[in-house]
Amino acid sequence: MSKLNSEGNQAFTEANEAENTVSEMLRDLSGVDEKQARSIVAAWGDWQLSDVLDTIVELRTFAETDRSLEFDTLFRAAIGFPEANVRLESVRALSNGGSVNIAQTLLEALERDEDARVRAAAAESLHAFADPSQARNISGAALSRIAAALSRAASQDESAVSGKALKALAAMRVEEVPDLIDAMFDDAIGDPELMSDVLLAMGESGDTSWLPTIEDAFYSGDAQIRIAAVMAFGEVAGDDDVESLSEPFDDHVLEVQMATVQALANIGSPQAREMLSLAVKSSEPEVQQMAQTALDLLKAEDDLTYAVSPDMVAQGLFGVPLGARRPPRDLSRYDAPTEEGWANVTPEGQEIDVANAPDDIGEDYEDYLESDEFFRDSNTN
């Protein structure tokens, strides 16, 4: 028996070592260039499909848990893979936005991919560019092209795609969104998936005029629609509206109750916190835990808001009174080459003023989404 245990332990150890080796190899793919990425994706053609999908999922997990790792170039290359499921997972892996290259790849998937699931995922991933922290990475003209592509998808593509495109458009606060929501709402009657997307778009729009329509959906016979309505409500409601959540708060479907807790956490008002305190006493353990976590996070936000009190400001940084500090250094005559030992120079040694002559330092970046090439591609496909 001891021999069997020993052999079993050895096999387990070897399996762990092999798994760690594979993980290290995958991590080494971080930061590959486009040529390397295309070569790697081409090699996947000889793999089992399940192995390719597992690899993409694992790479995505690495990137989400370790911000120093970046596989976007590889994911972008994989969107050209013949198998639709690989393209789908690759598009999902680009859902955090981040660059004009990612936007370009997602636009191509939205407008050209033959699989509706991939187009829908591309629309959802483009939603990231509604976030100002992501939108600032690309130009206003590029954002306009994203909005135009989403608008076409919302108006012309099949419902599995159009609803996702509408949500992304609503988050971007595009002017035509109210009309699109009105039109799609009628089409969504009898289609729970599309109706859920329309309700979520109402929430993404930030328009409180949709609140009565959203509240009506609390009484839908479809749990998916009720969940979407509650989540949308949490995006636009204020403290005076919180009482309306009493209905989904007691819903017989656990997922609706949990969505209500999330909506209350999003609102975060005094009355919302009172309802969260009641949810902590729920008979459902999942609801209890979620409500307590929400209250803890709201408390942490409050603590952060008041972390620097007026008394602390008067006392000064690290207890040093303001009057005892040295006056700030006069930087009006700050000379970088003298102070730091460097100068703004060309390879030939000529000093230049980067503030006035960016072209002199090779500022030749061209945004593909603003180029004539992209315009031609968009109108010929």
Summarize the topology.
Blueprint: H1 2-27, H2 34-43, H3 49-65, H4 72-78, H5 84-93, H6 100-112, H7 116-126, H8 132-135, H9 140-156, H10 159-171, H11 177-188, H12 192-205, H13 211-216, H14 223-236, H15 246-249, H16 254-267, H17 270-279, H18 285-305, H19 310-315, H20 336-340, H21 372-380
Helix pairs in contact: 2-4, 3-5, 4-5, 5-7, 6-7, 6-9, 7-10, 9-10, 10-11, 10-12, 11-12, 12-14, 14-16, 16-17, 16-18, 17-18
Task: Characterise the protein shown here.
The chain has a domain at 221-305: Leucine-rich Repeat Variant. Residues 1-5, 7-18, 317-334, 338-342 and 354-366 have low confidence and may be disordered. It is mostly helical. The chain is built from 21 helices and no strands. Helices cover 64% and strands 0% of the residues.
Mean pLDDT: 81
Q: Give the strand content.
A: under 5%
Q: If you consult CATH, what is the topology of the domain at 221-305?
A: Leucine-rich Repeat Variant
Contiguous helical run count: 21
Q: How much helix, percentage-wise, in residues?
A: 55-70%
Coarse morphology:
globular
Radius of gyration: 27 Å
**Structural class, judged by helices and strands?**
mainly alpha
Order of helices and strands: HHHHHHHHHHHHHHHHHHHHH
Q: By CATH's scheme, which homologous superfamily of the domain at 221-305 applies?
A: Leucine-rich Repeat Variant
CATH class of the domain at 221-305: Mainly Alpha
Number of strands: 0
| Largest beta-sheet characterization | none
CATH architecture of the domain at 221-305, by name, is Alpha Horseshoe
Low-confidence stretches: 1-5, 7-18, 317-334, 338-342, 354-366
Task: Tell me the span between the first and last alpha carbons.
Answer: 68 Å
